[in-house]
UniProtKB/TrEMBL annotation:
It comes from the Eukaryota. One of its GO terms (molecular function) is kinase activity. This is Pyruvate kinase. Its cofactor is K(+). It comes from Aegilops tauschii subsp. strangulata.
Length: 361
């Protein structure tokens, strides 16, 4: 930038390039910009569009401090149903990187915006940040999303070999989800992009070193473990030892199922979300649909909503009927076959129980 004239910024172009895309932004590298993370326009959109549509996630662009997340959460809490919306902090610059640990503690998940980070960081540093950030998210049990994986598929039907390897590495590094950008926003092959990335992810998951990951996570959590953490890790260990085809977890908040998924079991985790009835003295409403949808972003977690007449901590008879519904759902989707073993994690009274069942025909 050579000078600023009123609202215009005069720049010197140092190399020739053709700018393509539907949106142009000016990126100020290595400079602290004193602008609010949530602009008035953002708040307006959340009120007028977000609230009526009951959005599940808010991606908070350019998160620089934990305070940004706290302010966004405070704003959401005033918008009725949006108090349940999960906030994903999007890390896009060095300032966000420097405060990564405090942001991770406050946010519900992290999106690593590698495109913008690549401008702020030297290219040789991006991989290091990606690996360490994903590791921290995994250990905290919070979803991590990686962006900018197959840019060349915006105009081409096939990704480059480097991009295909990059997608697989994101999975092996521990990311929960992959977020596509230009490839599906303005790309020529949006559907093919999704199926290609999906196939690469599926291949990478087959060779994920679960054993090493499990030991590392248990070591990181340390002892004494919390009650829930020990139940979750025990359920995963039992499922691996008996070669179970699925882990079924009864939960009302989704927290127990997310903890099980944190240990990255090799089999799917079927999270049976039990809705809870609540009232504000004027009307009754069910909670549970939000939690079920939101757990879709967690790697290996497959949610289903149970019948609200069955509370999560109920007697064994009602639990059996919910379990039957879950098993039928598993059979219908092809995850469970006859004579398979299934690990079930549930609450009975005040105590949590992990049990192994073997199916008949």
């Amino acid at each position: 930038v050579s000078e600023v004239q009123g609202d215009d910024v005069v720049c010197v172009i140092k190399n020739s390039a053709t700018l393509a895309g539907s949106l142009f932004t000016l990126h100020c590298s290595q400079i602290h910009i004193d602008m609010p993370t949530l602009s008035d326009e953002d708040k307006d959109v959340m009120k007028k569009w977000g609230a009526p549509n009951k959005i599940d996630f808010l991606s908070l662009s350019y998160t620089r401090h934990a305070e940004d997340v706290r302010q966004a959460r405070e704003f959401l809490s005033k918008l009725g149903d949006l108090s349940q919306t999960l906030i994903f902090a999007k890390i896009e610059n060095v300032e966000g990187l420097n405060h990564f640990d405090e942001i991770l503690e406050e946010a519900d998940g992290i999106i690593l915006s590698r495109g913008n980070l690549g401008i702020d960081l030297p290219p040789e540093k991006v991989f290091l940040f990606q690996k360490s950030a994903l590791h921290k998210c995994n250990m905290a049990g919070k979803p991590a999303v990686v962006t900018r994986v197959v840019d060349s598929m915006t105009d081409n039907l096939r990704p480059t070999r480097a991009e295909a390897t990059d997608v697989a590495n994101a999975v092996l590094d521990g990311s929960d989800a992959i977020l596509l950008g230009a490839e599906t926003l303005r790309g020529l092959y949006p559907v093919e992009t999704i199926s290609t990335v999906g196939r690469i992810c599926a291949e990478a998951e087959k060779v994920f070193n679960q054993d090493l990951y499990f030991k590392r996570t248990v070591k990181y959590v340390g002892e004494p473990m919390t009650h829930l953490e020990s139940i979750a890790s025990s359920a995963v260990r039992a499922a691996i030892k008996v070669k179970a085809s699925v882990i079924i977890c009864f939960t009302s908040s989704g927290r127990a199922a997310r903890l099980i998924a944190k240990y990255r079991p090799t089999m799917p985790v079927l999270s049976v979300v039990i809705p809870r009835l609540k009232t504000n003295q004027l009307k009754w409403s069910f909670t549970g649909a939000f939690e079920a949808r939101q757990s879709l972003i967690v790697r290996g977690l497959f949610p289903m909503l149970a019948d609200p007449r069955h509370p999560a901590e109920s007697t064994s008879t009602t639990n059996e009927s919910v379990l039957k519904v879950a098993l039928d759902h598993g059979k219908a989707s092809g995850v469970i076959k006859s004579h398979d073993r299934v690990v079930v994690c549930q609450k009975v009274g005040d105590s949590s129980v992990v049990k192994i069942i073997e199916l008949d025909d």
